[in-house]
Amino acid sequence: MKSEINERGNVVFRDFFCDRDRYFYDFGQCRPSSGWVQYDTDQDAWYFGVWVHPRDRVILTYAEGDEVTVTCPDELSFKAELMHMESFYGAPPPAFTVIDTETGDVTYVAGSRPCI
């Protein structure tokens, strides 16, 4: 697998045409018990997902059969990658919505993302 260095100084590995779906990662190598955190986006589906391993400073994206892994050499470059992701993906989507039936107020509740 060939690697490249992105604008934030992180190493990017690309693997194309993986015969998988996102559940391969959810229930396999990116399990929370292994230190991974799901990075929620509004694009999440069976063919797309993003996971972050904060301790090891690794980010894995699965998109329509392709896998991209970003490894960050230090905390500063890891934070830069997370900031770039926040800019690219936008705010996390709501995990659920709460509607106050008396006032009509709507509250959107989103899960937490790895800290920047």
Characteristic terms for this protein:
116 residues, alpha+beta, six-stranded antiparallel β-sheet, two-stranded antiparallel sheet, 8 strands, 17% helix, globular
How are the elements arranged and paired?
Blueprint lengths: L2 E3 L5 E5 L6 H5 L10 E2 L9 E6 L4 E6 L2 E6 L3 H15 L4 E6 L6 E5 L6
Antiparallel strand pairs: 1-2, 2-6, 3-4, 4-5, 5-6, 7-8
Summarize the structure.
17% of the residues lie in helices and 34% in strands.
Explain how this protein is built.
It is a single chain. With 116 residues, the protein is an alpha+beta fold. The protein has one domain. Helix content is 17%, strand content 34%. It is built from 2 helices and 8 strands. The strands form 2 sheets. The protein has a 6-stranded antiparallel beta sheet. The longest helix is centred in the C-terminal third of the chain and has 15 residues. The mean pLDDT is 89.
- Alpha-beta content class: alpha+beta
Largest sheet: 6 strands, antiparallel
Q: What is the end-to-end distance?
A: 29 Å
Q: Which percent range fits the helix content?
A: 10-25%
What's the domain count? 1
**Which strands sit side by side, in order, in the main sheet?**
1-2-6-5-4-3
Mean pLDDT, as a whole number? 89
Radius of gyration, in Å, reads 16 Å
Low-confidence stretches: none
> What is the number of E strands?
8
Output the helix-strand order.
EEHEEEEHEE
Q: Which overall shape is indicated by the principal axes computed on the Cα atoms?
A: globular
Residue fraction in strands: 25-35%
Helix count, per DSSP?
2
